[in-house]
Design goal:
This protein has 196 residues and is mostly helical. It folds into two domains: 8-148, dinb family like domain (Four Helix Bundle (Hemerythrin (Met), subunit A), Up-down Bundle), CATH 1.20.120; 160-196, no CATH class. It contains seven helices and two strands, in the order ααααββααα. The protein has helices at 8-28, 46-64, 69-72, 85-101, 119-141, 149-159, 184-191; strands at 109-112, 115-118. A hairpin with a 2-residue loop joins strand 1 (109-112) and strand 2. Helix 1 runs antiparallel to helix 4, helix 2 packs antiparallel against helix 5 (119-141) and helix 5 packs across helix 6 (149-159). It is globular and about 45 Å long. The termini are far apart.
Amino acid sequence: MGGMTADPHRTLLARHGEALDLFTDRVHSVAADQWDAPTPCTEWTVRDLVNHLAVEQMWVPPLLDGSSIDDVGDSLDGDRLGDDPVATWDGAAAAARKAFHARGALDRTVELSFGSTAADAYCAQMTADAVVHAWDLARAIGADEHPPKALVDFTGKELGPYIDDLSGTGLFAAPVRPPAGADDWQKLLARLGRRP
């Protein structure tokens, strides 16, 4: 028998699930007195950061179902975490995971702020974003800052083609020099303007 080729969608969904699990672990580690703590995202507290990621997950089901940004409107604006941020995150992450796993979901096209995008590319972007923000949250609360190697490799591959353009978007700080002896993850963080 010949060698079997891995299904790229199956691999993508595995990495996406691992990224959600990573961020979920960090959310569940937030102490009661840490929600207002600062994060490496200088404009955001821990609560702001978790809200940002939760809202990103809340967008997934309607976008994959064919809704446009105009259809969703301002219904997901502002702080959506409510009185139980952990439960809100868990629910949003579960709904996003289910939406991406739906039959044919990754073969669809979604309408994002910058135009039509293949759903599998959207899933890959969401995966990398969750991995990077898991580091932000870990740094803010004093948790483990190193994701598994598979997620480091995935994030580097996903961001590689456009990473040097990100600081010009205003969403990322300018790249910084990585520390001496930096590993691949620390080098990637430095390119994203974070100080590992």
